[in-house]
Amino acid sequence: MAVLRLFASAREAAGLSVDRIDGATVGEILDEARRRYGEQFATVLTHSRVWVNGAPADVRAPLRDGDVVAVLPPVSGGSDTAVVAAATAEKPRLEEPLPFTKPESDKSESGWFRPHDLTAPEFEGSLARLTKPQAVAETTGTQLNGDQRAAAVEREPLSVVPDTDKPHVRLGIVWLIVTIAAVAGGQTTLGIWMSVMAGVAAVQVTKAWMARHERPVSYIAVGGAAVLPLAAIGGLDTLNIFVVLAVVATLLARVSSPTKAPSRDVALTLMIIFPIGLATAAPVLLRGVGVAAPLSLFAFAAAHDMGAYLVGTGSASEWEGPIAGIASIFCVTLFVAVLVPSFDGGSPFLLGFVAAVLAPLGPLAASIVLGDRDANAPALRRLDSLLLLAPVFAWLAAVLLH
To answer: Is the pTM of this model over 0.70?
Structure first.
């Protein structure tokens, strides 16, 4: 439970100066305050500055029990030094607070605020330097240390730095064993297994977006992603039918329950369905052609993942892992060329080249689907190497095998 402290006109609009409100983020606290105190308070809030424990914060900032959220409206007739000093009595003033303005479209349950873009020109400089390193340190503090943590601050916006706080190697081996067994079990078995993985990944991605006050059509996003691998059991024509149905169902769902940004909601829902659904449907389609093609696909993806993780963990550069993954794909290409009779001539090398290009881009695509590279979605991260590779590989392998 956080403590909400109101100053000047915000206090007058709410009729009190201190309140205690439950909420996991600043946005949830302010949303509840608006509901409690009404439109007069909401009007004041759109022009106010919000601090947490003496530091400027935006609506996505997480809160702990006992945190103090201060709402500071503009102070006329002189300096607001006294007000700021009261709000930051326990902690020193850092930088100018982040103002809140009324948005054109909603980012919260009630749709009345949107966090500012910290990369905008008006926030370049001290506030941007303060906020970005702190955010990275908070999200990676339990995962990184030493030089790796320092490198994470400077890494590319969508890059993924492997962490060692979970048994990734063992989980990866279990995933590979179960997937190979599903391939051996036939197209239906593989379709069911891929559907489970797609559904779990879609649930995690949907939750990540909704935690940031977005509004994908959750049941369509999860159901659509999970049904595409099952539809692939019936072949390409059946899959195409369900792709169209997913689009129609998303549009109808949003029309029947309109929001302030329906086009954004529809686009976000489809962005969850198709990368996940098609990546998991592609191996099922390939299983209808034979065993060699889906096994080769999973071998390429697994080789990239193992090379990228083993070398990328603890590396000084975010590119060392992907380069190691590409080298691992080259080894698998030689294996496929020598031991897999289904692919002859230059086919294995063409498939290996495609895997070397697309598999390293998969984690970046997963970060785009998540909207946040640090969002918790382990099922999607397990599938990320397949997001771009699997659909292209399936089409190319089908052509080469006919």
So the answer is: no
